[in-house]
Amino acid sequence: MAIMGTGGVGGYFGTRLALAGHDVQFIARGRHLDAIRAQGLTVRSPLGDMHLPHPAITDRPADIGPVDVVLLGVKLWDTETAAQAIRPLVGPGTAVISLQNGVVKDEMLRAALGDAAVVGGVCYIAATIEAPGVIAHSGTLQKLVFGEYGGQRTPRVEAFRQACEQAGIEAVVSEDIARAIWEKFVFLVGLSGATASTRCALGPVRSHPASRRLLLTLMAEAVAVGRAEGVALPPDYAEDRLRFCDQLPADMTASMLRDLLQGHRLELPWLSGDVSRRGALRGVATPYNSAVADILALHVQPG
Ligand SMILES: NC(=O)C1=CN([C@@H]2O[C@H](COP(=O)(O)OP(=O)(O)OC[C@H]3O[C@@H](n4cnc5c(N)ncnc54)[C@H](OP(=O)(O)O)[C@@H]3O)[C@@H](O)[C@H]2O)C=CC1
Ligand SMILES: CC(C)(CO)C(=O)C(=O)O
């Protein structure tokens, strides 16, 4: 397997897979790569800390050659460059599974790598690069959902499910992965848009009638756009996600709020911005997502 982007997501899941005995080749760059080469890759997690003293790691994916599975864990602005870089890793049966947020990622991967390579995927976790060479996992959630776009349970999907099971990763094979990706997207568009634009955690956002309406409407617009694109989301799915939000910890925030507060680049154009863009193409009104995209536009690029 290869992990393209050894960050919060790639570093966490890759480390688990490597510790379970799988041949995992990590791809990283910069100070993070240097630190991992010098001191190994460390994951701090409430489920138990992990350490790979000498992981196979490179910044030259072409040296790795074809693999069974590529997990893509780069931020969305790096998708096209990463897709070109992993071309030498993709053989006839290789599954490229993006763990990124958003719904546009697999469209970009298909354009670069062809339809056959792309297996849909989505992940549920909160993990970040705490320091070069060190990944910090918050909470205990660590789940992958993946599947072929046609819904078939192919040997490559089943083999990866088994690998995850051996590695102690909660893994679910979806027969409607497009819908599974949209389900996460709906929730994340609401959580990221509402927490980042108010600069508040979920607890306060859901308890004030106005910010609760903001949260619900951001999700409802995403549902309307998904349904207009033919995704089988129930019409009341936003209300379902609002009930889900009511059960989550009050201090929960989206990674986009954390990025905003730390002055990092934002994935906004691929979240609320993408709802707005897709809505315009389908004739679906998305005033709340468009407003969030406009309000936060100044912060998308740091500096
Ligand atoms: N973190 C989380 O908890 C969750 C994240 N996601 C999604 O997963 C995706 C990844 O997020 P996250 O793990 O937080 O991102 P990170 O920034 O933590 O990790 C991405 C890593 O990939 C590296 N990278 C990018 N391009 C290359 C390249 N060409 N060669 C080598 N290394 C490269 C980056 O290096 P550099 O820093 O130099 O750019 C960085 O170290 C995002 O789409 C995010 O929305 C989804 C669920 C949860
Ligand atoms: C909501 C969460 C933590 C779920 O994985 C996420 O994807 C994000 O904040 O980017």
Automatic annotation (TrEMBL):
Record-annotated Ketopantoate reductase N-terminal domain positions: 2-149
SUPFAM superfamilies: 6-phosphogluconate dehydrogenase C-terminal domain-like (SSF48179), NAD(P)-binding Rossmann-fold domains (SSF51735)
Keywords (A to Z) from UniProt: NADP, Oxidoreductase, Pantothenate biosynthesis
Catalysed conversion reaction: (R)-pantoate + NADP(+) = 2-dehydropantoate + NADPH + H(+)
Pathway where it operates: Cofactor biosynthesis; (R)-pantothenate biosynthesis; (R)-pantoate from 3-methyl-2-oxobutanoate: step 2/2
Enzyme nomenclature, EC number: 1.1.1.169
Record InterPro entries: 6-PGluconate_DH-like_C_sf (IPR008927), 6PGD_dom2 (IPR013328), ApbA (IPR003710), KPA_reductase (IPR013752), KPR-Related (IPR051402), KPR_N (IPR013332), NAD(P)-bd_dom_sf (IPR036291)
Sequence similarity: Belongs to the ketopantoate reductase family.
Primary role: Catalyzes the NADPH-dependent reduction of ketopantoate into pantoic acid.
Protein name: 2-dehydropantoate 2-reductase
The organism of origin for this protein: Ideonella oryzae
